[in-house]
Amino acid sequence: MKRTVPSETGYKRPVRQSDYRSRTGVLSSAGSPKDRPGQTRSGNGRIPKRAFGESRIVRFRVLILLTSVLLAAIFAQLVVEQIVSSSSYDVKIASEIGSSSAVQASRGTIYDRNGNILFTSVQSEDVYSEDYATFSASSEAAELSPVLKKSKSVLMKELHEPSGYVLLAKNISLGLEQKISSLGFPNIYFEPGQVYENPSGNLVQPLLGGVSNSGAGNAGLQYLYNSFLAGHNGRVADQQLGPGMVLPNTSKLISKPRDGKSLVLSLDANLQEKVTADLSKQILATHATSAVAIFSDVKTGAILAMVSLVRTKKNVVEPAPSNLALTSVYEPGSVMKIATFSFALKDHIVTPNTTLSVPYSIQIGGYTFQDAEYHPTQLMPAKEILAQSSNVGTIKIASMLGPDRLYQAMKALGFGQYTGLNWPGESPGILGSPATWYGSDLGSLPIGLGEAVTPMQLLDAYNTVADGGVFRSPHILDGVVNGKHISYLPVPKGKRVMPKSVAATLTKMFEGVIQNGTGIAGCVPGYLVAGKTGTAQVPSKTSAGYITGDWNATFVGYAPAQNPVISGMVLMHHSNPIYGGAASAPVFSEVMRYALAHYNIRPPKGSSGPGQGLCSPEGAILARASGLALGQ
Q1: What is the SS3 assignment for 294?
Q2: Model confidence over 321-337: pLDDT tens digits?
Q3: What residues does 410 pair with on adjacent strands?
């Protein structure tokens, strides 16, 4: 009987004897082993023992090689993990079994121009308690109460609070920390912090601004120069048992903090104090709601003093909530006449002696404009129009100048644009352009109505004339402290907007305002002063027109007039008397007298004799008087 095996195709073929012998190891008809070089078999068809041993050695060697490669890879990874990536694992560990927190960098110190500290950060400590480590809350509260100046009952409640830890006191001094540490309570621990101090009190608060709880400047100089002052915080990791349960003495510094840089300002703390004192007295004397005063270096634009004050409902004068010199705008009144006269002189439209027929009132664009006091039509030279602050005379000169040139004059003097201080919340003012002006604006704008300016813009304009016709942006930052050295910043470059001769002529005309015009109370004994008064009614915020009986008073000037060094402006909001010559000029006179002596600025030679137009005895008396309604 023939045998068959299954195939994949289902076909069954006979099994040959030769096939069977091949499968069982018996020689097939294909030939003997000798006919096949390299093939050796044992008599029983198995692989010889010698061949089997060689295969085992080969496998063993391969195993050793693979094991060596694996161990080398493991060792390399350990090097990477232990040395290269160790810092990253610190962070990972902190995130998994603990928490990381900022180590606040010390904020930079702010100095005035003489090295007086205006702002500094002082190291302090925050006191914490861990409830699970508290043994006797009663005895601890009794001893901590007089030290922390907190009642025993409040401390008892805090020491029992089951939150893991509780803040008992913030920003205590290092001396107080040592006193608490000496009590030896195991549940009490400390974390470093900072407290900010203004050694000068609130003299410069509207300028300095504030610092938030996160350590970032949130207003004023603190915000403006935060990138310098803040530095870079470090990081520290703490291990914890659970949320809010930090293990004591487990802090590990991940990165060190880098303290902020200190700044040197152009401000003079002594002058700032003088301005604040005199302005405060005048606010109370004139019942003003608020006031602003700025004094600066004519040649560099450096701000020497900048004061913003308000009067509270309790009749107390205190720093304004913001820097009004840059963030508030108002209609300036006659001090704005500087734009009309500067370009009228520059364009040779008038000279100081050009005579105009000046009536009491004039119609422009359907509106009537008039002078402060009634007078019949009269011939007035241009210098007298400025000295007596004639609105009608100024409007007639502005009409000769034309709207386009008037607009260019205002822009050239810095109105309608930012000052360059980059102050947070600074206003560019409101000016518009000839294309947007009404027909009556050629009557209102030249006399300081219908536009809005900041006090700083106004002082910048007068500085331009005082500095020989060069407009220069103001600055308040003098330098940055780098280690033991100060890197002083360059003085902002100026731009000439009028010939030096025009500026000199206009200064002479401003001298006349002080000598025999509306600004007599702004004089300084022994010096020639150039300046201008301004009085403007306050616009209504709820309806068209102005508020009856509500006025702003301004005085702007500089000295010595022959070679100006210091300039200043004083603005009184809603004062009584209403005139700049009565409410604001006396403050200018008092501060300027102090400043000239403070900086040892003597009158130029040949300016102190008779006939030089110096401050008269009457002017000297009026300069120290308040409540006298003198001119505009």
Answers
A1: strand
A2: 999 999 999 999 999 99
A3: none
Residue 265 CB coordination number (10 Å): 26
Q: How many CB atoms lie within 10 A of CB 470?
A: 19
Gap between the Cα atoms of 391 and 396, Å rounded: 9
> Minimal CA–CA distance to 565: which of 590, 533, 532, 529?
529
Candidate ranges 183-187, 208-212, 438-442; pick with highest mean pLDDT: 438-442
Predicted local confidence at residue 66, as pLDDT: 84
| Residues 570 and 623: beta-carbon distance below 8 Å | no
d(CA 215, CA 222): 10
SS3 letters across 345-399:
HHCCCCCCCCEEEECCEEEECCEEEECCCCCCCEEEEHHHHHHCCCHHHHHHHHH
Which is nearest to 569 in space by CA: 206, 304, 264? 304
| pTM, rounded to two decimals | 0.77
- Please write the tens of the pLDDT for every residue from 227-252: 999 888 777 776 665 555 555 556 67
**pLDDT of res. 245:** 54
Question: Angle at Cα 138 formed by Cα 135 and Cα 144, nearest 5°?
Answer: 95
Chain CA centroid to CA 345, Å: 39
Contact 12/5 with Cβ under 8 angstroms? yes
Residue of 403, 375, 411, 414 lying closest to 391 (CA atoms): 375
Mean pLDDT, residues 5-12 = 43
Sign of CA dihedral 510, 516, 517, 522: positive
Which strands make up the sheet holding 546-559, listed edge to edge? Answer: 317-319, 303-311, 290-297, 566-573, 546-559, 530-539
* Structural domains present in the chain: 100-263 (3.90.1310.10), 269-622 (3.40.710.10)
Structure confidence at residue 621 (pLDDT): 55
Angstrom distance (rounded) from CA 541 to CA 329: 13
Dihedral sign for Cα 467, 472, 473, 474, please: negative
